[in-house]
Design a protein that fits this description.
By secondary structure, the chain is an alpha/beta fold. It contains 23 helices and 15 strands. Bound molecules: iron/sulfur cluster (2 copies) and FE2/S2 (inorganic) cluster. One iron/sulfur cluster (SF4) binds next to helix 5, helix 8 and helix 9.
Length: 500
């Protein structure tokens, strides 16, 4: 029989001064779940080992734990021959893998999680439209395993004023039930609905594919539709309605200075890079890098905001016009590939545009959308670069890693042109989801954690693919005594390596 080895977090606050890790051997079988291993330790090795479970079948949510660094249900995950088991983060440890569920349960009392009905059904049996049923049926699958809570950067920094992803899923279950008559927008708002960075970490780990972050965006859309939105959101909507851009024009517009009108490859610039003179170098670098490799690039003047920031704050009504205008601009420029240099725009163009465009025109997008790194990684870029003597770490923008599933490509590029330190954590910088304008203090606290995670890494630059992350990280580095560390877009590092 094969042997397995599991290292387990052990802590009994009543007798232990501090937590410790213990390693146990177990008879490994490929059909074993992680819960089977925990049961083996408890039954055969140490009866004081503590963890929770009830159903062994993914339904009770009690067996949530960190398995090899990732949250999950022990009864659902298959055991591997070497494992590390730890309690979920962001919750107080009662003993070993058991966490205090009361902290979260307290929040639930304020949510009024019962069907609150004023208008009785007009007919029996009552009919519910399929589209309504789908929406609240998904949220109803939540088993309250707290995996999402354990990875939420906003909840970590603001546990008392933020419901967190699981809380909003519970709320959404009732808010999207067409039989429910309670004004749940008020509860959502007071639970910190606009404290979410839309980082998507909760969605990444949910074992039941509930997508808490999407539920949060849908709840925000209800707030906006009912007119009960924060001032920062209504200002953003007004700005886009008036200018078709997300931000005020600075001294110049990058798009207005370019002359390339037609080509197979098009560059989507995005509002931040277009109007912010500190970021325009990203577009200049991207164009130079592509041109160096012989790629002609069109930059249509008619391109406008991608619409993704509007989706994140719940202003969905305004998006269609922007999508149609953008698609027309790149179609007329003859583009069959659209390259994004802002990962937020990229996720919008990849995930938001196709559905909206199809609904409005019945057609598919006339081009493929690719992130800059995704496109460059397909080209023989190493033929054009001279490696730099630059020590860097890579910061994964949430909208690139989770939003677009792009992880390897920037690393492939950076490994061949810089000295890449690969130990950077995967963590949100606190700049997304409109958090900086809706709750600056919370955004700063998340940012501080992020910046501190680079402190001992001995790097000269942090490289990333999102202009919002670049702005946010620059602020964080300056505020935390790390001014010497540069923040660069991958396109800028490539341009340096190409000497263009
Ligand atoms: S939303 Fe998903 S991850 Fe969060 S508590 Fe519910 S089942 Fe668990
Ligand atoms: S998207 Fe990020 S900040 Fe928002 S609830 Fe999920 S984990 Fe928390
Ligand atoms: S034991 Fe119930 S979900 Fe795992």
């Amino acid at each position: 029989m094969n042997k397995g080895k599991v290292t387990v977090f052990r802590y009994n606050p009543e007798i232990d001064i501090q937590p410790r890790y213990e390693t146990y051997e177990f008879p490994y079988k490929p059909s074993m779940t992680v819960l089977d291993v925990a049961m083996y330790i408890y039954e055969q090795i140490d009866g004081s080992f503590s963890f929770s479970y009830a159903c062994s079948n993914s339904h009770c949510g009690l067996c949530g734990a960190k398995i090899n660094g990732k949250p999950g249900l022990m009864c659902r995950e298959m055991a591997t021959q070497e494992m590390v088991l730890e309690p979920l983060d962001n919750l107080t440890v009662i003993r070993d893998l058991m966490v205090d569920r009361d902290e979260y349960e307290k929040h639930k009392d304020s949510l009024r999680l019962n069907l609150d009905r004023v208008n009785l059904p007009l007919q029996e049996p009552e009919k519910i439209a399929l589209k309504d049923l789908r929406r609240f049926a998904v949220a109803s699958r939540c088993v309250e395993c707290y995996s999402c809570i354990s990875v939420c950067p906003s909840l970590k920094e603001n546990p008392h004023e933020y419901l967190g992803p699981a809380g909003f899923v519970q709320l959404a279950r009732h808010a999207f039930d067409p039989r429910d008559d309670l004004n749940r927008e008020v509860i959502a708002y007071s639970g910190g609905l606009y404290n979410c960075t839309t980082c998507g970490r909760c969605t990444e780990v949910c074992p039941h594919d509930i997508a808490p972050s999407e539920n949060i965006e849908l709840l925000r859309a209800r707030m906006v539709a009912s007119g009960n939105m924060p001032r920062a959101v209504s200002q953003l909507i007004e700005m886009v309605e008036k200018t078709e851009k997300l931000i005020q024009k600075g001294k110049s517009s990058f798009i207005e200075t370019t002359s390339m009108k037609k080509a197979k490859v098009g560059l989507f610039v995005g509002c931040n890079i277009d109007y912010d003179s500190r970021l325009q170098s990203i577009a200049i670098a991207a164009l130079k890098v592509l041109q160096k490799m012989g790629i002609e690039v069109a930059v249509p003047q008619e391109q406008v905001c991608c619409g993704q920031p509007l989706k994140e704050v719940g202003a969905v009504e305004e998006i269609q016009k922007l999508v149609l205008k953008n698609v027309k601009a790149f179609e007329q420029a003859g583009c069959t590939t659209l390259i994004t240099i802002c990962s937020g725009c990229g996720v919008g163009a990849k995930k938001l545009w196709p559905g909206i465009y199809k609904e409005a025109t019945g057609k598919d997008l006339p081009f493929e959308v690719m992130d800059f790194t995704e496109y460059v990684a397909t080209l023989p870029f190493t033929d054009f670069v001279k490696p730099l003597n630059l020590k860097v770490a890579y910061h994964d923008p949430c909208t690139l890693k989770r939003g677009q599933g792009i992880y390897e490509e920037p690393r492939k590029i950076l490994k061949s042109i810089t000295k890449l330190n690969e130990n950077a954590e995967d963590a949100c910088c606190g700049g997304g989801g409109g958090l900086r304008v809706s709750n600056l203090k919370l955004s700063q606290r998340i940012l501080k954690n992020r910046v501190n995670s680079f402190r001992n890494m001995d790097v000269q630059a942090i490289v990333t693919g999102c202009p919002t992350c670049i702005k946010q990280l620059n602020i964080g580095l300056a505020q935390n005594g790390m001014r010497k560390v540069e923040v660069l877009h991958t396109a800028v590092v490539m341009a340096r390596a190409m000497g263009v």
